[in-house]
Amino acid sequence: MASTPRPRTTTREPEELARRLTAWLDTRLPGAKAVDVTVPESNGMSSETLLFTVEHPEPPLRGCALRLAADPAAYTVFPVYDMPRQYRTMRLVAERTDLPVPRVLWLEKDPRPLGVPFLVMERVEGRVPPDVMPYTYEGNWLHAATDAERARLEEASVRIVARLHDQVPADEAQFLALPGEGSPLRRHVTAQRAYYAWVVSGLPRSPLIESAFDRLEELWPHTEGAPVLNWGDARIGNIVYAGFEPAAVLDWEMAALAPREVDLGWLVYLHRFFQDLTVSFGQPGLPDFLRRDRVEETYARLTGHTPRAMDFYTLYAALRHAIVMLRVAYRQVHFGEAEAPGAPEDADALILHHGSLAAMVQGSYW
């Protein structure tokens, strides 16, 4: 893994963005200038983040973070980036919960200043479990922590999800309801089918992903439960921690109305993704961290809701992640960083966790 090139996360020039950002800031805060503009190492491959400081004659603002929709000319990971929706979600969560959501300062819907819509929020200092190299590898602060410290972080992270689900009135989050017919879960899965169709349009399809969709139908929950506001990308890599306590909850672009278990399955599986990857490269990883049984028990204790049909929801998380991974792989092909697959089986091999997904489809993973 150490020798695998990291896929590019941006095609933009930070210096040019800084110049254009300063020009825009002057319209909102006359005389202001964006300085110390940096791209964080944890910048993802979807929406982009820039960190900067506002220099102004008045007492300066704290550091800021710019959340920028992906460049539409850069083979985006998702087909749509709805920044007003993210802004509205963050405002709702901030108003209706005690979660540490960064204060959103501005929303810019006009694409002309920076090329795409964006939002600006206050920057929160702290540390984030790394994705590259994953926090399950040796050599980072979370791996080096004690078992007690990781248990504290785990409990606090599950509590974030529990409080989100319990505290936001579902009727106030109806703007996050996905289009289509059927239950919220059915709409969620239908949206993923549409996303997969977009990813493979004109390209080799994935037999593994399609078999996973078929297996979902066989495992469909008998009782789905009432929908709640789902964070969507519920994982510790989207939390800034002060010590081992959450200081900021980030990345709301995948938020939706769905059963509670959609978030829980994602939280459990995204850790397993890193853990399995680490084991495959000869390291023990963190096998006792964010275990499925303990996440379920903690969530039930905090909310009174016992998670149901988690075989379905962890498979669904692995399937959703596989579609994203396939899109990222095809993005690498687009930029000449990888070779195009010659057959459908080759497309499956582009999915980094194809082995664990296949085991889930076969019922032999857990």
How would you sum up this structure, described in words?
InterPro entries: ACAD10_11_N (IPR041726), AGP_Transferase (IPR051678), Aminoglycoside_PTrfase (IPR002575), Kinase-like_dom_sf (IPR011009). It holds the Pfam family APH. This is Phosphotransferase. Residues 82-278 form the Aminoglycoside phosphotransferase domain. The chain has helices at residues 14-28, 83-96, 141-144, 147-167, 184-199, 207-219, 260-280, 292-303, 310-334, 344-349, 354-362; strands spanning 33-38, 48-55, 64-68, 104-108, 118-122, 228-230, 239-242, 245-249, 256-258. The longest helix has 25 residues, at 310-334. The protein starts with 13 loop residues before the first helix and ends with a helix. It has a 5-stranded antiparallel beta sheet, with helices on both faces. A two-stranded antiparallel sheet has the order 6-9. Strands 7-8 form a two-stranded antiparallel ribbon. Helix content is 43%, strand content 12%. The protein is globular, with a radius of gyration of 20 Å. Helix 7 (260-280) packs across helix 9. It is an alpha+beta fold and 366 residues long.
